[in-house]
Amino acid sequence: PVCYLFFWALLLGFSLxxxxxxxxxxxxxxxxxxxxxxxxxxxxxxPKCIYDFTGKETGCAIYxxxxx
Length: 68
Hints:
Blueprint: H1 2-18, H2 20-31, H3 33-42, H4 48-65
Helix pairs in contact: 1-2
């Protein structure tokens, strides 16, 4: 695991050095998931309306993707 983390950090450093704009855009895209995580996973005492919304949204996604 230590070698893996070292290699990953090395690749990240080279990527940031060679293409900072591309890495910055990727970082912004990844950070947009933080509020989604806190609203959907971390927050345990959600109001019923949020549970209803996410249930309907999941059902629509399953129907659209044909996974049902």
